[in-house]
Amino acid sequence: xxxxxxxxxxxxxxxxxxxxxxxxxxxxxxxxxxxxxxxxxxxxxxxxxxxxxxxxxxxxxxxxxxxxxxxxxxxxxxxxxxxxxxxxxxxxxxxxxxxxxxxxxxxxxxxxxxxxxxxxxxx
Length: 123
Known about the structure:
Layout: E1 2-7, E2 10-13, E3 18-26, E4 33-39, E5 46-51, E6 58-60, E7 68-73, E8 78-83, E9 92-99, E10 112-113, E11 117-122
Parallel strand pairs: 2-11
Antiparallel strand pairs: 1-3, 3-8, 4-5, 4-9, 5-6, 7-8, 9-10, 9-11
């Protein structure tokens, strides 16, 4: 079992920044890759980015490339999502998820999910 807890969401003006954290607990955490997804009201869950268990490999959705950065601190069992140059269309509930399949975009590839944290970007 893996437990994931997101934090760091909030309200920010367009052009601002937020840093989300995903704290993981459980066994054999180093065997999991971690992804970030988001879901806006009335829309389906959308892939944002993912990072391998080594922290070396990453993949980003086109909509966030150049603005978002995913990173990992294995010593703290925490994955971060640095979000810069935020836009109103980034407004969503952001979820982190863990998978034994690395660098996948599909939600079905992830076995464990956090509760989500709200990010609201105002214009």
